[in-house]
Amino acid sequence: DLYRKVFVFRKDPSDAYVVLRAKLEQPLQNFTVCLRSYTDLTRPHSLFSYATKAQDNEILLFKPKPSEYRLYVGGKFVTFRVPEGRGDWEHVCASWESATGIAEFWLNGKPWPRKGLQRGYTVGTEAAIVLGQEQDAFGGGFDVYNSFSGELADVYLWDAGLSPDKMRAAYQSLRLPPAVLAWKSLSYEVKGDVVVKPRLRE
């Protein structure tokens, strides 16, 4: 249970990462991924990387620069342009549904204009899920200049699209539906220089 705790990725650039284990029974037709990050990086960095043997960017939440987030599904991506952060925690949720190909992006509890990608696609289950690095091969192939440095918390993955009130609940750290990956019952393994510490502030 990592409630009120964070992963601190201490080095920049870094070869460290955290492996997450999820129980996925069937391929994903829908998903929502949420997390909180706190960093002063201005270079590109990966936040959440979900790779299968067939596709290294099966699901990827990536920040190429301070004013952009990218969501990849099955190797294709859409870009969400955002105001540059003011040196504070940023909470992001991204969801996608196969039936419509609609991708939603929420930043700090507010929705951005929806975009479309990969309609009819299915996300594979045999996944390597990594925080802090971007996989260019299954479970590896990292480029340190895409590594994350800073603090990560409140990581969740659902095998469904969340309703707007649940998206806001995730931002406010309120009660959430059962998740495939849940911060309060996370199965993880630290690889390299990552430290679990209490959160300094809300």
TrEMBL record:
Highest taxon above the source species: Eukaryota
Disulphide linkage map: 34-93
Keyword Protein transport recorded: no
Transmembrane segments annotated in the record for this chain: none
UniProt keyword Secreted present: yes
PROSITE patterns associated with the record: PTX_1, PTX_2
Record keywords, A-Z: Acute phase, Calcium, Disulfide bond, Metal-binding, Secreted, Signal
GO CC terms of this entry: extracellular space
Cofactor: Ca(2+)
Primary location class: secreted
SMART domains: PTX (SM00159)
A GO molecular-function descriptor: metal ion binding
Cofactor remark: Binds 2 calcium ions per subunit.
GO biological process annotation, one example: innate immune response
Subcellular locations according to the entry: Secreted
Record note on quaternary structure: Homopentamer. Pentaxin (or pentraxin) have a discoid arrangement of 5 non-covalently bound subunits.
Protein name, entry field: Pentraxin family member
Organism from which the protein derives: Fregetta grallaria
